[in-house]
Amino acid sequence: MRSIALLLFLLSVSTFSVARPNWSLELEPAEMAQAEALYQQYCSLCHGEDRSGYRADHAPSLRSQSLLSTAFPGFLFTAVGYGRAGTAMDGYSDEMGGPLNRDDLRLLTRWLLAVEGVEPVKLADTPVHGDATRGAVVYAEQCASCHGAEGEGDTGPALGDPALLANASDAFLRHAIANGRDNTPMIAFADLLPSTDIDAIVAYLRSQASGWSPQPPTLRKPPAPEEYVLNPDGEEPVFTLREGRYVPAAEVVRALQEKRRFILLDTRPASAWQRSHIPGAVPMPYYREKERAGDNLPNDGTWIVAYCACPHAASDFVINNLRELGYQNTAIIDEGILVWTALGLPVTAGQGLATD
Ligand code: HEC
Ligand code: HEC
Predict the structure, then answer these.
(1) By C-alpha distance, which of 321, 338, 316, 302 is closest to 244?
(2) Are 53 and 155 in contact, with CB atoms under 8 Å apart?
(3) CATH 3.40.50.1820: does it fit domain 225-349?
(4) In terms of CATH, what superfamily is 28-116?
């Protein structure tokens, strides 16, 4: 009986303490300041300090009226929390091993609109009907040069990405194509293509969707500092550096095979390390405070090789910090991990996400 009473008590407490998520666009000054600080620490590296995008890796603008008004809240929240696999946009949610909890993610999402003074627009949720075969032809002619032949992304976002397609309604896609994204290379196609061709492209993009749901990995423990140095008894690797900093992936593979002594740093968000990483790599996300860049890293001439997806933005940032702290032998994998993976070079998958 006592335990039932306790259970009822706990249930009633939890019912009362579940607050509705706060999606208000009226932010207190303290919230504005907190969101801005989160943004500068985690996002400005690629999206730029002023949010206009293209600071690194073709990261899109986070200022365009057309995106913000139609993407609030779900599309933005999901993009930031769960990311886009296969692009430089990783998931920042702590469920994925990232640094931000749901309150942080919500705050950032609200702030993106509030700081730009944009009001959300409700799009119709009726599906768009079009001729997908025709859409494929128009896509190849008009869109592939920026978005990639298979929608894999290039200078424009990866439109074939399952997470994007799962969170973008037909109306959202149609709106983006017709209106473009103001102040970005994405022009408005409403006056350039017949309306039926825009519908056809939406149908084509939709036909590529393969379904998606966030798959939180079983979080792994990062290596302990005494495990940082690979092959502690090995010889020094021999690297030829381009511009005094970039080492070809092939030389890093050779150093791994020959069991050379060095340290590998994964400078992406910790969630990306959780998903997959080069065997032996230590998670050292770019958003660590600068003074902590050298935490637990020996400063005794041991080679330190960093990589990211970008292929350079995050790793350049971390290596610059280390060089300022006086580290001598430092380098960056020139091709980045996306090319590394595409070349079939070894990566260790995080548990639970082996096929990601
Ligand atoms: C000149 C290059 C270029 C061409 C051509 C182009 N796009 Fe884009 N597109 C972009 C860029 C860059 C963005 C991201 C803009 C931003 O928000 O910063 C984008 C954004 C988009 C988005 C929004 C994606 C999102 O996640 O918000 C859609 C949808 C889209 N494009 C579809 C198309 C389609 C369909 C075509 C062909 C009819 C096309 N684009 C042609 C460069 C291009
Ligand atoms: C390492 C570079 C990088 C960092 C850091 C980064 N992003 Fe991105 N972000 C990208 C890229 C690249 C894309 C486009 C991915 C694609 O092809 O779909 C993107 C896409 C997005 C999108 C989707 C936009 C759209 O039009 O679909 C949002 C929203 C976003 N990022 C917000 C953020 C926020 C907020 C942060 C910080 C918590 C952040 N990003 C950190 C590179 C980055």
Answers:
(1) 316
(2) no
(3) no
(4) Cytochrome c-like domain (1.10.760.10)
- Residue by residue, what is the 3-state secondary structure of 209-260? CCCCCCCCCCCCCCCCHHHCCECCCCCCCCCCCECCCEECHHHHHHHHHCCC
The closest ligand to the CA of 180 turns out to be 1
Q: Do domains 132-207 and 225-349 have the same CATH topology?
A: no
State in Å: Cα 140 to ligand 1 middle.
13
Q: What is the pLDDT of residue 18?
A: 62
Q: What is the pLDDT of residues 270-314, one digit of tens each?
A: 999 998 899 999 999 999 888 788 889 999 999 999 999 978 999
Quick check: CB of 285 below 6 Å from ligand 2? no
Q: Which atom of ligand 2 is nearest to the CA of 308?
A: 1
Ligand 2 in reach of 293 Cβ (< 6 A): no
Query: Is residue 1 pLDDT above 70, yes or no?
Result: no
pTM of the model: 0.89
**Predicted local distance difference test score (pLDDT) of residue 324:** 94
183 lines ligand 1 (CB under 6 A): no
* 149 within 8 A of 143, measured Cβ to Cβ: no
Classify residue 122 by its DSSP letter: P
* Enclosing H/E stretch for 306: strand 303-307
Residues 6+ apart with CB under 8 A from 83: 89, 90, 91, 92, 96, 163, 271
> CB–CB of 230/278 below 8 Å?
no
